[in-house]
Write the structure tokens for this entry.
Amino acid sequence: MNRRHPLSSAALSLTAALFLAGCGSGGDDTGKEPPAAGATASRAPASSSADPAPKMSLPADLKATFEDAEVSGDEAAALRDAENYARAILHGIAAQDPKAAPVHHYSVPGSKAEEYAKFQIEKHAEAGFTLTGERTHSRATAEPKAGGVVVTFCSDETRIRGRSEEGEPITFYEPGDPKNLWFWTIDMVNSEKDEKLWRAKNTEVESGATEQCG
């Protein structure tokens, strides 16, 4: 049965990582396979925000790709920064830094979304592993909601693997396992200081999301 948690894949990822299970918002895969069909080649985390976005990069062996979505206006801006938020988590895991500037930039301070991101990064660091490979994101939607925009998308961990500090690969779920599929719901709100910046306020991630992502 699928499970949804406000801090979901963070806690699940840690347990999975430690017991050779699947990694919810990060895993690793040294394979350099081409992006999934329809995915853009890791769209740049550009933002037209007046508040300059902090530099954010991923190691050469870690990629995040996102399919294009037919949205516009505020919905497109919210989706863009929801993707940046997801990318910021990967950035923090790779850097082993829960205080990474991009995480703070793309999440509301003190919010569930910031808590989720920091918990993910901290637990990966405590477990002594980072990520390698490619995580693909698809089926994005962005819908107006009172006070903001609700963004959803799927992420596929099939090409992601963990890598220990010693460089040894950690194998998680096999290709085709439904636990590789995750369904994200992110509540995005406009920054009070910068109308061009959208930030994640709450994050829920559901594991084994075959119904939404299969």
In short: The first helix runs from residue 8 to 18. Helices lie at 8-18, 73-95, 101-105, 112-127, 210-213.
